[in-house]
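Problem 12. The chain below contains 318 residues. Write out its predicted structure in token notation.
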Amino acid sequence: MHKYLRTLFIVVLLFSWQLLPAQIKERIILNELDSYYSSLEISPCGKIFVTGDNAGTIRVWDLKSGGLSQEFKQGENIGIHTLTFSQNCNLLASTNSEGWIDVYDIESKKPANHFRLSDKKIPQKIFFLDDQNLLLSTQHGIVNYNRDLAQVTYPFPPGHSQIFDYNAQHDLLLVGTRDSSQRCSKKLIVFKRSSLEEIRVYEKHNECVTRAYFAYDATIVVSISGSEWIKVWKVNDDKNLFLLPNSKLYDIKVVNDQFIVGRKNVNPNKSKIIFWNVQDGVKNFEIGFKYPIMKYSVAPDLRNLVLISYRSALIIDL
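Solution.
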């Protein structure tokens, strides 16, 4: 056991866990905050992760040691909503409850941009197209901004659209769309971002789509909607490969093209993280917690799981 972990055994007294003890080597509690954690993201490079709280503070942590390396203040008592890394992990973008967007340079440890959409739209998701361009999904549609704060025209389909995922390697967007009579997206469209060529339309959801992700080099999509099954389908023919039981899952993620990961609130005081194989839907394992999990993120190499629960954050080695 490394020296920096010796003072952190307090986690054993504060948290209980169940399942596959051989797979869980260490658990690190980062700190107890005066404010609640509200957002979490592990970098694509798998070396650091970031947290945001409801007081407007963003913290950058070392994934291996759990040490705090940087801290940014986006405002006073402004909840951090979204945190997104650029593909090279040099830049971090964040949004807050008042609609402000900040870009931070992780290497220089300095803010790079601070702006707000002119019509005060609140971004729900942010994607880096490259180091100079951001793609923003708002409640009123999709906006492309460059870091000189000039808006780039983006002729997305008529009606309200939102981005669920972006695959930079293949330049593909996974977009949910709805017309003015609908309150949510039930139709998913795969677009070539640069040309807006429509690759595939998927209209087999009966309820609102809440999460959708690319997997397998953007040839497979995993989506979840309402109380329906989790659907895993092929982009090239839009046929379901298999279905997974939803059973009150709060959200899902696709990690490293290998696992579908879901978070389930068993009751107000218990949670589960479940791993399924993305190839055939076989459940690999699950981890049970005797406390509520607010957010979670899995490292790209599948070695670490980071959780936040109210005022505490934990690193778990898988």
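Discussion. The longest helix spans residues 10-14. Students who got a different answer should revisit the alignment rule from Section 12.3.
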